[in-house]
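URGENT: need a sanity check before tomorrow's submission.

F., can you look over the ABC transporter ATP-binding protein record below? I want to be sure the sequence and structure line up before it goes out.
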Amino acid sequence: MKNDHKFKKILAEWPTLKRLLKITFKNHEWMIFVSFLAIIISTLASVIGSLFLQKLFDNYITPLVKSANPNFFPLFKAVLYMGLIYLLGILAVTLYTQLMAILGQKVQLKLRKQMFSKMQTLPISYFDNHNYGDIMSRYTNDIDTLLQMITQSLPQLVNVIFNLTFVIVGMLYLSWQLTIISLVIFAISIIFIRFLTIKSSFYFNKRQQQLGRTNAYIEETLTGQKVVQLFSHEEETKQSFFKLNDKLRIYFGKANGYAMMLFPFMGNLGNVLYVLVALIGGYLSIKHYVPLTLGTIAAFLQLSKSFSQPIAQFSQQLNSVVMALAGGKRIFNLLDQKSEVDEGKITLTDQNGNYSWQKDSNSTLLLGKVEFDHVNFGYENDKEILHDINFKVNPGDKVALVGETGAGKSTIINLLTRFYEINDGQIKIDGINTKNISKESLRKLFGMVLQQTNLFTGSILDNIKYGDLSVSDQQLNNAIKLANLDIFVNQLKDGYNTIIKGEGNGLSQGQRQLISIARVAVVNPPIVILDEATSNIDTRTERQVQQAMDNLMQNRTSFVIAHRLSTIFNADLILVVYNGRIIEQGNHQQLIDKHGKYFNLYNNSLVLD
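Structure tokens as predicted:
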């Protein structure tokens, strides 16, 4: 049956289920225990209430019918007791439902916190290799399926198990003969459902295969219609299609026929069992084959109806568990990812804008000298995309990286900040291998302004202060002035308190870059990395952005992915990147005099991306 397949899936994901249960139970044992107890009470109340029907009919209703002077008080008292039993069951259901809802929310909150905390430790390569929508789905859809499993599926499965157990015990208590008859009828029904399921599944598969063949034939005929007509093959083509279509019609009919029998039968299995037990029980009682009272038959019918309902629920809840385990596996896949490795011991200290290297008790003033020494790199170890990168940058120099799209300029920049680890060679800052510098300190060295500017929900002021929330008013004003922000922010109704939403979609690309420049200026980094805009920016704003970038680069070691001729002309060092190699380096005049790649790019106006 389908449930066999579901059980196999659950068993295959046993490590995931075990881990989920461990997270669910940890620090919530009392909630689990009380919920478990409440489930038992609710199922017992339901079964006892059904059994009470026997007493109600045989001890109260039947004598009253036969009595000439009936006394209804005992009946009302019995009905009250029965009502209290059902009320206890309702209260127990309410209790475990509420507790499991609270537990589900707690587990959901815990997992989301763990996932978000883990995300902060993952290397950039993880986000490059995974679709953002897929990552977001783990925070939303996958977490929601787990919540449904904890709040609904697991309690329902436990409830079904106890319910079936207590119902069968209750049925045996009332009449072991009717119980056997009911189980036989139920088994025959299950066999029939199994038969319908197999047949329906078989013909649905056949239908889909035939539909594929028919569609393929139609497509083939449409694309080759000229050839069909050229060779006068219209009649043969038509007959072939008719044969395919007839087979499709047959499979459609059989698949739908079995399905139309299956679903109504499954939906009415309880009613079928109810009617058959009533007929057989009544017949056996009338013929005196089995000593059955009216109360016994009424109570048994109530239990038999309760017997079939949990079976359908069981199948539905297994579906939810299978889905939740798939979601749980994806969540744990994220949580089990290796965090970014950081073995660096050397740190960076900042005293009023004066940076120093700190190792043990030794302190050395930061200069800002950068060196790539025979660096090789590939996103995959066996596929290098940067080959033997060598260059030296003196403190305060401006470096322009030039080359066509995909040459490797951005990759070189990403290696500076150790967003990716190199395969061979060394990257040094002031003679210190960057692998020996803690990543937190290393990244404090750099301020980055890229074309794709990321702003966060909040005010413009919040975004400027993002890198240093404790920045002084004087530092803040200096950063705003450096970035020429007043020019456009003062035109906004709420000025610097203007709320940015959706990554600043209400602002132009140039305006977002100006805010990004101010954000970098606030933290006053010794080295800056800039990616000049090439499009989607008006001339006036472009001048403001360029001026702000020039201001930011003053007295700092600077790396620029250059697109503007003026930036390239003024660079102290131009690195010409081609197919993952630096094929030329020098200043503008030196490279022009070489008559090499740069000379050709310049003359063909290809320096600009």
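My own read: Residues 1-174+310-337 form a domain with the ABC transporter transmembrane region fold fold (CATH 1.20.1560.10). The two ends are 61 Å apart (CA to CA). If you see anything odd, call me.
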